[in-house]
Amino acid sequence: MDELNDELLKKITNNKIQPPHRNFKVEKPQQVFVPLTFESSTEEVKAWLEAKSFSKETVEHLGILTGAQLFSLNREELKKVCGDEGNRVYSKITVEKNQLEKSRGESELQEIMKRHQERIDSAN
User: Fold this and answer.
1) Which of 30, 62, 28, 29 shows the shortest CA–CA distance to 48?
2) pLDDT tens for the 124 residues of the chain, in order
3) H or E segment at 115?
4) Cα dist. 32→44, 77, 122 in Å?
5) What is the Cα–Cα distance from 5 to 83, expressed in whole angstroms?
6) Residue 124, SS3?
7) Alpha carbons 54 and 84: distance in angstroms, whole number
8) Long-range contacts of 31-36 (CB under 8 A, 24+ apart)
């Protein structure tokens, strides 16, 4: 019994010191940036869905929509159309929509600040 315990202890400490060599490689696909906006065409929506690695069925079902149409769908509608993948589609769309609204808000603020600065400059 002591021999078994000693061998087990040796294996455990050896693995902690030197982790076992793994003979596999995980390849991550190159991330392609495909923007999605309210003005996106059906082709751009399809390219966005493919870039996000959605299933062929999801791409076929939602690739016929424009950006505005895709953004207008709620979670339940996406679950009906895409099944289990509906939640993931909804999450990705929500992220895109939030980024668009944030960037639009920043550009609107910059435009207001620019006009305000022009008024100040013209008054001086």
Assistant:
1) 62
2) 788 888 887 777 776 666 666 676 666 666 667 789 999 999 999 999 999 999 999 999 999 999 999 999 999 999 999 999 999 999 999 999 988 888 776 777 777 888 888 888 888 7
3) helix 86-123
4) 13, 27, 45
5) 51
6) coil
7) 11
8) 36/67, 36/70, 36/93, 36/96
Asked if residue 82 lies in contact with residue 89, where contact means CB atoms within 8 angstroms, the answer is yes
Residue 23, token pair as written in the block: 């003979």
* DSSP type of residue 85: G
The token pair that represents 102 in the structure block: 């944030």
- Rounded-to-5 percentages of helix, strand, coil across the chain: 70, 0, 30
